[in-house]
Description:
By secondary structure, the protein is mainly α. The chain has one domain. 63% of the residues lie in helices and 0% in strands. The protein has helices at 3-19, 22-36, 40-48.
Amino acid sequence: xxxxxxxxxxxxxxxxxxxxxxxxxxxxxxxxxxxxxxxxxxxxxxxxxxxxxxxxxxxxxxxxx
Length: 65
């Protein structure tokens, strides 16, 4: 699974994870870790963190001459 696929999966599961009870969170977390390959503690941090937003385009930086 590529980086973009992981991001889309994270965005899809985030809202459901926030609303779930403890038992459902365990199941969802196990599935999320198996699918993405993330370590369990990292997955918990991002799923309990701030909501996923669209990433802002990076501003092109150029060297001053």
